[in-house]
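Can't paste images in this forum, so I'm doing it all in text. The chain is below; anyone willing to post the predicted structure tokens underneath?
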Amino acid sequence: MQLQQLAYFVAVAEVRHFTRAAETLRVAQPSLSKQIRTLESELGAPLFSRARGNITLTPAGEALLPLARRILADVETARREVQDLTGLRRGRVRLGATPSLFAGLLADALARFRARYPGIELRVEEGGSRDLVRDLARGHIDLALIILPLQSTDPALETAPILREDLVVVSPHSDAPKRPYVRIQDLRHQPLVMFRRGYDLREATQAACRQAGFEPRFAVEGGEMDAVLRFVEAGLGLAVVPSMVLAGRPGLVGTPLAPPGLQRTIALAHRKDVHPTHAAQAFHETLLGFLADAEASGGLPPGVERIE
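Text version of the structure:
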């Protein structure tokens, strides 16, 4: 069994098409098909069902896929680890986070890391916590800033809480509530702008409304963070968002929720079974140092506190 064969197998499994997989890998389709057949022969079982041109995984293929992904991710980690031994002059950090964090704290933290390690390649992936957990498990990213608690437990994931932040009800400045707080019950008859599925903010808002005895009413749903805030600015409805995303948006007002309010915990996560590379560890240390300095100087956004 060769790594190249596993890479070809994973590519076909993800797109369910031999020709498209070959184009993605930039290899000839006959060569790819031959390597897959060789792998199947070595394993003693077909990996794909090719009935009428419809490519599906066989039970053997289903069993091999997560193992193949993990092997390829581990090999990539090993390659990067060796590169890191040059003293962090080269390497790569693949970071995932929610859009609210990229729009808030992370840009300055990334700038500090870049200044210290200009040779390290930075790649970022925006998404909801559920999407980021999946990407971690598949080895697509090295570190992720996710929201706790997770919707599903993953024993292969290690999380370290680093921040706690308040959620607020955001409205256009012209329609800001007259009271200092908004109760969840006040949202019963209000149209809400709702995030797409996979966002922890969607689940948190729905859970709070259901606990208060009602189902939220959506004016529009399916947006990313920038779209949701723009929809609120346009007067389509209210939204529950982290307080930090309102910086630089004078047309919006964030009103705290009545005590005990809603908070969320942000954690830095990585796979337990893959030791973080030196570059990923350096980013971890840079991020924690940046947050400590921001707290000491009063630079954390309102409603955000560091967890030690």
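The chain has a mean pLDDT of 89. DSSP finds ten helices and twelve strands in the chain.
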